[in-house]
Amino acid sequence: MAGSGGLGGGSGDGQGTGTGQGPPLRAPRALLALVALVLGAYCLCALLGHCPPAARAPALAPARIELTSLARRPGAPGLPVASGSGLRRFPQALIVGVKKGGTRALLEFLRLHPDVRALGSEPHFFDRCYDRGLAWYRSLMPRTLDGQITMEKTPSYFVTREAPRRIHSMSPDTKLIVVVRNPVTRAISDYAQTLSKTPGLPSFRALAFRHGLGPVDTAWSAIRIGLYAQHLENWLRYFPLSHFLFVSGERLVSNPAGEVGRVQDFLGLKRVVTDKHFYFNATKGFPCLKKAQGSSRPRCLGKSKGRPHPRVPQAVVQRLQDFYRPFNRKFYQMTSQDFGWD
């Protein structure tokens, strides 16, 4: 199946054929062993990725900023949170998932709002860098004025078992945004991104199933992420459903203003970002932002967004649709929202 990368953005242009560029290995087992070694090293590097550096405060900042109005955030005893103007705060809202669902697009759309200040990079604090401590995490955040909302997004939080407990410890009042997308399309987009970074991977089919078209391999992260109902169950142990907003990755493409409007309502913000801010880019296959005042051209997401997906046989797509259907329906029931994937 060929398709646009959409907001999640497939990064690979090649076909998932499972062949490398060098001479063939003598036995299939040798090829699989080599691929397993490469994938293992890639995943290890990703998991052990560098934590972002803490922001360096200007030399005169302590003298200029009054620290008399420090409040304490529930769940973080002993750690003061600045409530004065122009100070760093813990995020009041987090985009916690999911990978290749459209999280980057949503963040960029929200950053148009004057009352949203968001960290541009993914800090990975609650999954990879938690040992750095909450004070370090807060030092990463942009400075905000009273009435502004601090946000960050790290899509891997949604599938990290420890993340809900850790976020709840920071603040049980945190608002949580989850961008979800048809799990089959999402998995293919995930594979396309990995393929662009690791050429010569086996085909999507070989990774998605054990023994040809045998059982679906839920050990593969591209498949496991799409089990939204299972991941949400873990989050609901710590946060009530009212703390979540589930954004449709498909509607973020077809009706970006509508979905962003829902997010602004959820955050308690005035609907400043509207349809006047968007236009549809037919080449990329998803909406882009119209040029801002003082800018010379419109702004779209980067080159890795909107590339074609590798071709996947329809039989493979159908098998995965059948596999995900009961999980999708449970997710619909849990969220009281039908995303129309079946």
Question: What top-tier CATH class of the domain at 87-184 and 229-309 fits best?
Answer: Alpha Beta
Low-confidence stretches: 1-6, 8-28, 30-38, 40-48, 56-84
SSE ordering: HHEEEEHEHEEHEHHHHEHHEEH
Helix content: 25-40%
Integer average pLDDT: 80
Query: If strands are numbered along the chain, what order do they take across the biggest sheet?
Result: 5-7-4-8-9
Helix count from the secondary structure assignment: 12
CATH topology of the domain at 87-184 and 229-309: Rossmann fold
Largest sheet: 5 strands, parallel
Structural class: alpha/beta
- Tell me the total number of β-strands: 11
- Form type: globular
What is the terminal separation in angstroms? 17 Å
Strand content: 5-15%
CATH homologous superfamily classification of the domain at 87-184 and 229-309:
P-loop containing nucleotide triphosphate hydrolases
Mind telling me which CATH architecture of the domain at 87-184 and 229-309 this is? 3-Layer(aba) Sandwich
If you compute it from the alpha carbons, what radius of gyration comes out, rounded to the nearest whole angstrom?
Answer: 21 Å
Binding site for 3'-phosphoadenylyl sulfate: 100-104, 181, 189, 305-309
Disulfide bonds: 288-300
Enzyme class: transferase
Biased composition (Gly residues): 1-21
